[in-house]
Amino acid sequence: MAGLFDVSKEIVLITGASQGLGRQFARLLSAHGAAVALAARQTAKLKDLETEIRAKGGRAVAVQMDVTDMISIGKAIDAAEAALGPVSVLINNAGIAIEKMAVEQTEDDWDSVINANLKGAYFVATEMARRMIARKQEGNIVNIASVLGFGVVKFLSPYTISKAGIVQATKAMALELAANRIRVNALAPGYIDTEINHDFWSTPGGEKLTKRIPQRRVGNESDLDGAIMLLASSASRYMTGSVITVDGGFLLT
User: What is the pLDDT of residue 48?
Assistant: First the structure.
């Protein structure tokens, strides 16, 4: 079975790799032999992660990328491929959330979330796909969606809208790119404990939300490992346009 999920020949570009899920994906894939290009706006944490992976014998390069800037996207992919070779797997993970009631969200709030989460992911994916097509290269794009692309909670309307858009973008790109041997799938995590939200889970609001999850716990970053290994490897070779939900049953409630 280990060979089925082999990523040792893959060159993986991960956006939003400086923290949280992106960092976990990078560590996991590198530990299984993939070369990883680590992309984010802030490079200090990326450099630390690059050093950590290289110290363990992995291949990694940190590249600065602002997914809301088309020029930055192109330059970052150029730098990643110059260092590691042609990218074969993209993990489209960069994103932000702004917590306010819908009537309090400003135009700037909307633009920040939609540009990072939806526009940015779309244009990173399409730029990567153009390169794969030009090389006549089989490719693999994994978009990170969310259970909030299917269900909603209060205070996150632009985020939920952006993630619903990611689900549809995944399907639309999968349909168009299948003839080019490029598959496009998505991972939709539920609530995952990361350093960004860790303190929240011990508050009354966090405990109340946890009780809504049928498994009665928040996910760990490592709970996504199996799904990301499936999607990043050739084990998913006959999957495209699929969205895998890993949420402890949250969408069942």
Answer: 96
